[in-house]
Design goal:
By secondary structure, the chain is mainly beta. The chain is 6% helix and 41% strand.
Length: 66
Amino acid sequence: MVGDDLTRLWEAHDLCKSEDAIFAASGVCDGYLPGAILGDVTTTTFSEVIDVQSGTVRRIETTRNL
């Protein structure tokens, strides 16, 4: 899919041709989403879920006990 062009900025229509799709992502390192935060007794992760058809965007912050 990427081929030799590692600098290409992919648009939504390049990655998903359907109008009835759900996109989900979780941050691993800082970037578009914050990366995972490892505390002494908890871990916090950040996720985003997009419903393409309705345009609903949800950002989710989850903290779990270790």
